[in-house]
Write a structure and sequence with these properties.
about 70 residues, elongated
C-alpha cells in the first residue's frame, strides 16, 4: 500500500469503522502471508493457502479503495 493511502487511512480510520476494520484485516493478511512465505519449501496446501490469502487481501484492498476514493 502506498504512503499517501496509509496516511489517509490513519487520518480517517478512527471515524470510519469499515475503513478501520478493512485496514486491520489487510495488515493481518500481510502478516499471515509473510509467515507462510518465509518457509523454505512450501507444500501444495501452503501454496494454496497463500493464493487464497492473497485473493482475500485483494478483495479487501478493492473495498478500501472504494472508501478512500471520495476521501482523496
Amino acid at each position: 500500500m502506498e504512503k499517501p493511502d496509509i496516511a489517509l487511512i490513519q487520518k480517517h480510520r478512527k471515524t470510519n469503522y469499515d475503513l478501520d476494520r478493512l485496514y486491520d484485516r489487510h495488515l493481518q493478511l500481510e502478516e499471515e502471508i509473510a509467515k507462510i512465505e518465509s518457509i523454505r519449501v512450501l507444500t501444495a496446501a501452503e501454496e494454496k493457502k497463500i493464493h487464497e490469502l492473497k485473493k482475500t487481501k485483494l478483495e479487501g484492498r478493492e473495498k478500501l479503495e472504494k472508501i478512500l476514493k471520495p476521501l482523496r
